[in-house]
Design a protein that fits this description.
heterodimer, A: alpha/beta, Rossmann fold, Immunoglobulin-like, 7-stranded mixed beta sheet, 5-stranded mixed beta sheet, 32% strand, B: alpha/beta, 2 domains, 6-stranded mixed beta sheet, 3-stranded antiparallel beta sheet, 9 helices, 11 strands, elongated
Chain lengths: 600, 286
Amino acid sequence: MSFYSPLAFIMGFTIPAVILLYMLKQRFEETSVSSIYLWQQALNNIEANAPWQKLKRSLLMLLQITAMLLFIMALANPYIRGLSTKTSNLIIAIDTSMSMQAADTKPSRFHEAKKRAASIVSNMKPGSKVTLVAMGANNTVYESLNTDKNSLQDKINSLEVTNAAGNIEEAAALLSSLSGQFPNTKTYVIGDTPLETALDGYEFINVGNNGDNYALVHQAHVFTPDGITALTRLGSFSSQDSRLNVSLYVDGQIFDSQRVQTGPGEFVNIYWDNIPQYASLLECRLESTDSLNTDNIIYDVITRSYDKKAVLVTDRNIFLEKAFSLVKGLKLYKSSYEDVPLLSGYDLYVYDGMVPEKLPDGNVIILNPHRNDLFGIIGKVKHPGLYKPEHELFKHIKEFPFTIGTASVLDVPSWGEEMLNSDKGAIIFGGIHENRRIIVFGFDVHDSNIVLKPAFPILISDIAGWLLPDRVLDLDRAYPHQAVELNLNPVTSKAYVYSPSGVKTQIAPPFPSGAFEKTYETGVYKLVQEAEGVLAENYFTVNCPQAESDLKLKLYKTNDEVSNTSHTPDGSEGMPLINILLWTALPILLIEWWVYSNAV
Amino acid sequence: MSELFDPGFLSRIQKLVLSMGITVSGSMSGNRKSRSKGMSVEFSDFREYTEGDDFRRIDWNAYGRFEKLFVKLFMEEKEAPVSIFLDTSSSMNWGMPNKSYSSRRLAAALSFMALSNYDRLSLYCITDCNASSLVSLRGTHAFHSILNLLENVKYDGTTDIKKGIENSSIKANRGITIIISDFFSTGSVMDTIKYLKYYKQDVYICHTLSPQELSPDLNSGCRVVDCETGRYKDLVVSKELLKAYGKALKYFVEKMESDCFSQSASYVLFDTSFDVEQIIKKVVGA
């Protein structure tokens, strides 16, 4: 049962007023006496002159309270959902985002949502077509225009809650599209976050219950001379002050524990010092239970950069030599054109003024290329008009405009993207080809003033960073159900990922590997790369999205939305109960009058 | 003759004699023994003859025996001033039988008896707002005035008995004062009796209460309104409350009785459900 005007329950305060009136001394029938002197003495004797009396069981009072409750219920305009006489198309959207795991509604919000959905299905008019939508990171139509109640119940039962953050805008767009297909479509959104835009026939069913929650929202680390210092950020999504125990586990063993004081809505930074240098995995835990336990744990993988080797194949280029030698963690070797076929084992190959016939076993930079099989050259141009570069790698060059004397206009292959464009065509492009990261400069740096700009070494450093990634994951943070690009080694022949629960997923071949999408669980994922029979293991983490930890924010928003969007004045979506309530109240009032008249 | 005083009632009270066993003083002769020595036939005492005494009253037999002149003294019978104070406040017009009915019959009976005994009767109907009285009546022929007054008396307002008595014409002569009231009134009863005793009165208190006052029969919940003052009390009538009322009534009556006893006044509880004759017998016998 739902209510069109739940605000009417404010009138509930009148019930205590009725009881209060009964606690007051009742109004008595007047009787004239010669004197009240003796009665006064009698009352003084038994001390019964207090303004209040003990509440006695009174049939009249019970009848009056019952009648009042019925009137208040009638004011709230209730209706039984599902007992519709007009609606034949239903869309039931169930929120499957992480906040639905919250246990502030027992046993959980998601369980309650499924129960409500099942109730709607069981009460719906026979022949109604139901579209079932699972709302989460990806809003998917789970079942379309199904009329079979049993099948729908099975589908609802098979829905599972995720660890992902919800995408409410996308959900609104999808539901709007679905509801627009048929007239008289009733859309039920069951969850803890209402849609921001109101749809026709939309009703939000809130299953949240204002739960208190604490979450570990960020974990990071830095290397210090004394070891590793880690930072954990604790967020309080509670309405009260709390003292919480937070523990840090290093490689599975408890390292330290701290007691942290937080206030409502506060975020607290917790520092962990002197973590051993050899540590590889940090796991921080909130040692208490709250409404949502999933976000009480956060992971951080410690990755170490090792010195990379780069070889510069050039006739003579002091600018490149200087710039690459400034890149931190990169050892630069120089070689001549003649030795190119012999070069191997480098992480980065810089070819200045040539293109190798065969791609080496590392990532590649080619400057001032000649015609080759790897990519095409459209022609040479003098003083090309350079467009402002938009690529991320050129973010520092934007402020330092430069010019080029003569440049080759490059034919960007399918695997590459333009990085610097001119009025004649692409001058610099980059991309991943045969598992190798490649950047091509279509000009000789000697024929440009770019090398004289202060930003040139920064550009080279940024390019080296892109070509030689330290981590398998470029992202700082990965969240559940997020597709993540993994940096595979150029020589990797086979790669697969183990989820925290041990589920193995092969991601390559084919190459390029594409994004890894099965980040369903939170925790530490293991990437295994196989190259020439040798296995290399790397780790990356997936942690809970902070937006889902705040259980209260959505709840307050919910109440406003419900009152604004779910009201349907004609009551066509449910069977109205107002008349039943009023007709029930009438005989109760008559009985009350009879009881009063006959002094039963 | 009215319903209040039917002929049967009057004939019954004529048979009763108001015999209070006291002596009074006054100048008019009556049917009471007086402290004055006079001309009656009832011997009282001897005393030695002094100059100026009536020779005829010398007891010569005594002279023969004692050789001294003695004079015979005889009791002179005189009238007694009887004052009846009837409370005519609103509270006295209440109950079944109505206290006004019973109390007026009692007042009438006592008046008739006093007049029949050649006493000097004063009847005061006392109330704060509408007092009336008849004073110094003698002889049964004055009884119709009494009846007339009692039939037309109006019960209204409150009563301060002491104030009412102070405003009356009671003199410092020995006499009888009868107060008929429910004593739900202002003013101390004790002070009233003391005041009357100061004026050498023998005081008779007829405490008039109706059966409903002696044993109230109320609904479970009611508001009792004082018919005199309009003040009220809300009552949830329970066994405890009735018990407390009985206790308060007992204390009230016993206090009256003890006050009267301490001042040598006579106290009679007049239940209006009883016959007036019975009460008169109690008063006379008191």
